[in-house]
Design goal:
- The structure holds 3 protein chains of 3 kinds.
- Chain A is mainly alpha-helical.
- Chain A contains 13 helices and no strands.
- Chain A has one domain: MetI-like (MetI-like fold).
- By secondary structure, chain B is α/β, with parallel strands linked by helices.
- Chain B has 10 helices and 12 strands.
- In chain B, the strands form 2 sheets. In chain B, strands 6-7-8-3-9-10-12-11 form an 8-stranded mixed beta sheet, sandwiched between helices. A 4-stranded antiparallel beta sheet of chain B has the order 2-1-4-5, with helices on one face.
- In chain B, a hairpin with a 2-residue loop joins β9 and β10.
- Chain C has a single domain, classed as 3-Layer(aba) Sandwich (Rossmann fold), CATH 3.40.50.
- The two termini of chain C are 31 Å apart.
- Classes of the chains: A mainly alpha, B alpha/beta, C alpha/beta.
- At the B-C interface, α5, α6, α7 and α9 of B face α7, α8, α9 and α11 of C.
Chain lengths: 280, 323, 319
C-alpha cells in the first residue's frame, strides 16, 4: 500500500500537467475551505459603494448592488466545487455501472443498454435541464442531480469498451472458474481494472458540470440563494462598460477552475499511456 | 575462414534508470555453411544477439561494445549507409510472427516487388516477378500466393513468404529468429526440411535462434548455449547435445521428456533467472547449479577451448581447479 | 461406478456472423475418465482441444451432447449448486502471466478463493491455510510471497500459485489447458511434477491438454488424439505411443523431433496445413491429407473401433 502511494507521488511529479493541475486544484480547494478567512466582506451584504472600482478595500470592486465581488468569487468557489464534484460523481457512478454491466454481460443486455445510451445521447441535455429546473425549481440540489443524471453517457461508453476488452482476459475466466459470481467479477475485477481512464474522464466532467451550472445561472435559472460565479456574470453583463470587473474576475475564476481540472485529466491520460507500455 | 566473427560482444539496455546487461561478453565464430543453433531460454539474450548483428536494436537505449566482423568488415563500426547495403543483400532475417512484418493492405506480390526494388530500383516488373516466382518455387509456395493478401495465408504459408523474402538477394547469412516456434509440429517439420534443402542449394550459412533444442539437434551442425546473456557452451551438435560438459546444458537436456524408453522422473533446473540489471560475481549460473563450488561463486569462469571447436565456460570442466 | 466424468457426444458449433459458416470446433466427442487418472488430449491447433477444455469447466455451453460429473449432468449442477461445481472442477490456464488480477497481491488472490467458498472462519485462518498450501507446493518462505504482485513473479512461480489456488478448493477434476507451453523448458518439469503430485496425493483426476506429445506422454495415464473436433484415437499412453493405429497419430508422433541428434526419425510427411473445422467433409476428416486415404475414406466417417483393451481408433485401416 505504501509502495503504491509512493509510486503515485512519483508519477504525479513526473508529469507537468498533472503537477500543475493538482497545485491549482489545491489552491482552489484551499480558497473554498478557508473562504470565511479569505473573504474580506460578507458576500451577501449590500455595501454603500456600488459599482466601485477595484481598490484596497474592495479587491475586485463591487457590483451593481454593492456586493464585494472578491468575496463573492471566493464564496462562489464553494458552490462551483460542490456542483462540479457531486454532479461528476453522480454521472461517473451511473455511467460506470451502466457501461460495466453492458460491456461485461454482452448479448441482449448490451443491446438494450446501448440503445438506452444512444437515446440519452440524442437528448439535448441542456434543454432537458431547463425543463426540469423550470418544473421542479432551481435549488442547487436539483441542478446538481439533473446535471448528474444527464451527463453519464460518455463515461458509460468508456466503461463499456473497457469491460468488453477485459472480459476476454484470462484472469476474468479464471475468476469464473474459481467460483466468483458475475456481480463479484464485475465489481472486484472489471470495474477496478477499467476505472483508470474513467477517472481521467471524470475530471473533465467536473469542468463541464461547472460550466453547465454557470450557463444555467447566466440565463437566470440558477439557485438564487447561493453565490455562484455564473450568477455574478449574469448580473455583471448589465454593467459591462461601467463595471468590467464584475464579469471579468468571476469569468477568470471559471477559467482557472476548468483549466485545473483539464490539466489533471490530461496528466492522468499521460500516466495511462506509459503505464500501458510498462505492463506486459 | 569465418564468415561471421563475434568478439566480446556486450549489449546493455538502459531502461527506467536500470542497466540491463542482455548480452555479456559473447564471442562466437561462424564459418561458411556452418549451420549453428543458438539455444537459450527467456532472458538468455539470444534474440538480442541476433538483432545486434544487423544493428536492429533501438539506438537510443542500447549500448553495444565489441566487434561483429562479417567477412572482414566490422558491422558495428561502419556507417548506417554502408550497413544498409549489407542488410538483406548479404545478411537476412526471418522473424517469428511474420504476420506482423507485412502490410495487411497490400498483396504479397506487390510487397515483395517493393522490397526487391530497394536494392535494384531499375529492375523491370517482369524481371522482378520472375525472381519472385523463382523464390516461391524454392520455398514450395504456389504461384497464386503472388496475388493474395497476408490474412488469406495460413501460418505456414506466411513463414514461407518470410523465408522467400529473406532469400530475395540470395544472402550469404540467414538468421532465423524462432522462425518455426508458432507453427504446428507437422508444418514445422516441413519448413525445417525445406530450409535445409535451401541451405544446400544456395550455399547459405544459417543461424537458428530457438528455445527448442530438438530443432537444433535435427537441423544444425553446431550449437551455442546461452544463459542470462552469457555464452556457456558451444561446439558441434554431435558433441554438445550428447555429452554436454556444462551443467546448465546438462540440466536443460534433462528437462526434455522423451517419447521413447522409460518414463523416467523428469527433472528441471530449480530456481529462477537472475536479475540482469545487477552485476554478478562469479558464474552467472552458480545459484542454480547443483555442482557449484566456492570458486564458482567468486570467479567468473573463462571460456576454454577443447578439441573439435568445443568451448565451455565452467570451472569444473577442463581442470580449472582439479590439478 | 468409478467413472468420475463421462462425456457423451459433446458438440460445440460456432456460427460465423458474416459468412454464415459453421465452425464445428468440437464435433461429437465421447470418453470417460476414472477417479485418480490423468487423460492427456493432444492435437494441433484447430483440433478443438481448448474448446473441449472450456466446455468441461463450464466456461461455455455445449451445442449438443452432455457432460456428466459423478453421474449428474453438469448443466444442472451449475444451475443448482454452482459453488459446488466450481469446487469440484478447476482449471489451470495456459498463460500464467494473465491468470490473476494484476491489482491483487498473492495473499488476496489466494484468500479470495477461500472466501468465496466459505473455507476458514477468519482472515487469519485463511492466511494460515494459504501459507501451509504454498509451503507444501515448494514456495518457501511463503510469507515472502504473500504481499507480492503477479508482475513481480516469474512464469513458473505464477503457474505454481495457480495450481495452489485450485488445490485449495480440493477439486476432484482438474483441467490443465497447456499449463507449461508458455514456460521455459527448464521450469516445466517442476510444474509437471507439482501437478502430478497434487493429483496423486489428493486422488483427483486430471485432463491434460497439450500440443506437446512428449510432455503429455510423461504425465498421462491415457491419451486421446483429436483432429478437427473429433477424437481419432484413444487408449492407454503406452499403447498409443508404441502401438499406434490411426494414420494421423502416426504422422503426429513421427514428426516429433527428439533432442538426440543421432536419432533418425522416420518422419511421415504429409502435405498441407491443419485446416479449420469448417465444411468438414462427409468422409473421414483426415482423408484430404491422409497418406492412406481411399475412396471409402472420403465417403463415410469411419466408426470408432476397439483395437485392444481400452484402445480405440476410428479408421478403416485397422486390424
Amino acid at each position: 500500500m505504501i509502495e503504491n502511494s509512493q509510486q503515485m507521488l512519483k508519477a504525479i511529479n513526473s508529469i507537468k500537467e498533472l503537477k500543475v493541475g493538482i497545485i491549482l486544484l489545491m489552491i482552489l480547494i484551499g480558497i473554498a475551505v478557508f473562504a470565511p478567512l479569505i473573504a474580506t466582506h460578507d458576500p451577501y451584504v449590500l455595501n454603500d459603494e456600488m459599482i466601485a472600482k477595484p481598490s484596497s478595500k474592495y479587491i475586485f470592486g463591487t457590483d451593481g448592488l454593492g456586493r464585494d465581488v472578491f468575496s463573492m468569487v471566493v464564496y462562489g468557489s464553494r458552490t462551483s466545487l460542490k456542483i462540479g464534484i457531486i454532479a461528476a460523481a453522480i454521472s461517473s457512478v451511473i455511467g460506470t455501472l451502466i457501461g460495466g454491466v453492458a460491456g461485461y454481460m454482452g448479448g441482449k443486455v448490451d443491446k438494450v443498454i446501448s440503445e438506452i445510451i444512444n437515446m440519452f445521447l440524442m437528448l439535448p441535455t441542456f434543454f432537458l435541464i431547463l425543463i426540469v429546473v423550470a418544473i421542479y425549481g432551481s435549488s442547487l440540489s436539483n441542478i446538481i442531480i439533473v446535471i448528474g443524471l444527464t451527463s453519464w453517457t460518455g463515461t458509460a461508453r468508456l466503461m463499456r469498451a473497457q469491460a468488453i476488452s477485459l472480459r476476454e482476459r484470462t484472469f476474468i475466466k479464471s475468476a469464473k472458474t474459481i467460483g466468483e459470481s458475475e456481480m463479484g467479477i464485475l465489481f472486484k475485477h472489471i470495474i477496478p481494472n477499467g476505472i483508470f481512464p474513467i477517472i481521467a474522464d471524470s475530471t473533465m466532467s467536473v469542468s463541464s458540470a461547472i460550466l453547465s451550472e454557470a450557463g444555467l445561472s447566466f440565463i437566470g435559472l440558477g439557485d438564487p440563494n447561493v453565490v455562484s460565479w455564473g450568477q455574478i456574470i449574469a448580473h455583471g453583463k448589465g454593467y459591462l462598460t461601467r463595471g468590467w470587473w464584475i464579469c471579468t474576475f468571476s469569468g477568470l475564476a471559471i477559467v482557472f477552475t476548468v483549466i485545473s481540472f483539464y490539466l489533471i485529466g490530461e496528466g492522468m491520460n499521460h500516466i495511462l499511456s506509459p503505464k500501458l507500455n510498462k505492463i506486459k | 575462414m569465418s564468415l561471421l566473427e563475434i568478439n566480446n560482444l556486450n549489449v546493455e539496455y538502459r531502461v527506467e534508470g536500470k542497466n540491463i546487461k542482455a548480452v555479456k561478453d559473447v564471442s562466437l565464430d561462424i564459418g561458411v555453411q556452418d549451420s549453428i543453433g543458438i539455444v537459450g531460454e527467456s532472458g538468455s539474450g539470444k534474440s538480442t544477439l541476433a538483432m545486434a548483428i544487423l544493428k536492429l536494436l533501438p539506438a537510443n537505449i542500447t549500448e553495444i561494445t565489441g566487434e561483429i566482423i562479417f567477412d572482414g568488415v566490422d558491422l558495428l563500426k561502419i556507417s548506417e549507409d554502408e550497413l544498409r547495403k549489407i542488410r538483406w543483400k548479404d545478411i537476412a532475417v526471418v522473424f517469428q510472427k511474420s504476420m506482423n512484418s507485412l502490410s495487411p493492405v497490400h498483396k504479397i506480390g506487390f510487397q515483395m516487388s517493393d522490397i526487391y526494388k530497394v536494392h535494384k530500383p531499375k529492375a523491370s516488373d517482369r524481371e522482378v516477378k520472375e525472381r519472385i516466382l523463382e523464390l516461391f518455387d524454392l520455398v514450395n509456395l504456389s504461384e497464386r500466393v503472388f496475388d493474395l493478401y497476408p490474412h488469406e495465408l495460413s501460418g505456414g504459408m506466411m513463414q514461407r513468404v518470410s523465408i522467400a523474402l529473406s532469400l530475395i538477394y540470395f544472402p550469404r547469412l540467414l538468421i532465423l529468429d524462432e522462425a518455426t516456434t508458432a507453427l504446428d509440429v507437422v508444418t514445422q517439420g516441413q519448413i525445417l526440411d525445406e530450409i535445409m534443402k535451401l541451405e544446400e542449394k544456395l550455399h547459405l550459412t544459417r543461424i537458428m535462434i530457438t528455445h527448442d533444442v530438438s530443432v537444433v539437434s535435427s537441423t544444425c551442425k553446431k550449437v551455442a548455449v546461452m544463459y542470462a546473456g552469457c555464452l556457456l557452451e558451444s561446439g558441434y551438435v554431435s558433441d554438445v547435445l550428447t555429452k554436454p560438459k556444462h551443467p546448465y546444458t546438462e540440466g536443460l537436456l534433462n528437462s526434455y521428456p522423451s517419447l521413447k524408453g522409460e518414463r523416467k522422473n523428469l527433472r528441471g533446473i530449480p530456481g529462477t533467472l537472475p536479475d540482469l540489471s545487477i552485476s554478478h560475481r562469479g558464474c552467472i549460473f552458480a545459484d542454480r547449479c547443483k555442482k557449484a563450488t566456492e570458486i564458482c561463486f567468486n570467479e567468473e569462469p573463462k571460456m576454454m577451448e577443447f578439441d573439435n571447436n568445443w568451448n565451455v565456460a565452467c570451472h569444473l570442466v577442463g581442470g580449472a581447479d582439479c590439478d | 461406478m468409478t467413472n468420475l466424468i463421462r462425456v457423451n457426444n459433446l458438440t460445440k458449433w460456432y456460427v460465423g456472423k458474416k459468412k454464415k459458416q459453421t465452425i464445428k470446433a468440437v464435433d461429437g466427442v465421447s470418453f470417460t475418465l476414472e477417479k485418480g487418472k490423468i487423460l492427456g488430449i493432444i492435437g494441433e491447433s484447430g483440433c478443438g482441444k481448448s474448446t473441449l477444455g472450456r466446455l468441461l469447466v463450464a466456461l461455455e455451453k455445449p451445442t449438443d451432447g452432455t457432460i456428466e460429473f459423478e453421474d449428474q449432468i453438469i448443466n444442472h449442477i451449475v444451475k443448482q449448486e454452482p459453488l459446488k461445481f466450481r469446487r469440484n472442477c478447476q482449471m489451470i490456464f495456459q498463460n500464467p502471466f494473465d491468470t490473476f488480477d494484476p491489482r491483487n497481491d498473492i495473499q488476496k488472490i489466494l484468500t479470495n478463493a477461500l472466501k468465496i467458498h466459505n473455507i476458514g472462519n477468519s482472515k487469519e485462518e485463511r492466511v494460515d491455510i494459504c501459507i501451509k498450501a504454498m509451503e507444501d507446493a515448494g514456495i518457501k518462505p511463503a510469507k515472502d510471497y504473500l504481499h507480492r504482485y503477479p508482475h513481480e513473479l516469474s512464469g513458473g512461480q505464477l503457474q505454481r500459485i495457480s495450481i495452489i489456488r485450485s488445490m485449495l478448493l480440493k477439486p476432484k477434476l482438474i483441467i490443465a489447458d497447456e499449463p507449461v507451453s508458455m514456460l521455459d523448458v527448464s521450469v516445466r518439469a517442476d510444474i509437471l511434477n507439482v501437478l502430478l503430485n497434487m493429483t496423486k496425493e489428493k486422488d483427483a483426476s486430471m485432463i491434460f491438454i497439450s500440443h506437446d506429445i512428449a510432455t503429455t506422454r510423461y504425465i498421462s495415464d491415457m491419451i486421446a488424439v483429436m483432429y478437427l473436433g473429433r477424437i481419432v484415437e484413444m487408449g492407454k499412453t503406452d499403447d498409443i505411443i508404441q502401438n499406434l493405429k490411426h494414420p494421423y497419430t502416426k504422422v503426429l508422433i513421427s514428426n516429433c523431433a527428439s533432442i538426440d541428434p543421432f536419432e533418425k526419425a522416420n518422419v511421415i510427411k504429409i502435405n498441407g496445413e491443419p485446416p479449420t473445422p469448417i465444411d468438414t467433409g462427409p468422409g473421414c476428416y483426415f482423408a484430404p491429407r491422409c497418406y492412406k486415404a481411399c475412396e471409402e475414406c472420403k465417403e463415410s466417417y469411419p466408426p470408432m473401433i476397439k483395437v485392444e483393451d481400452g484402445h480405440y481408433a476410428s479408421c478403416f485401416y485397422l486390424g
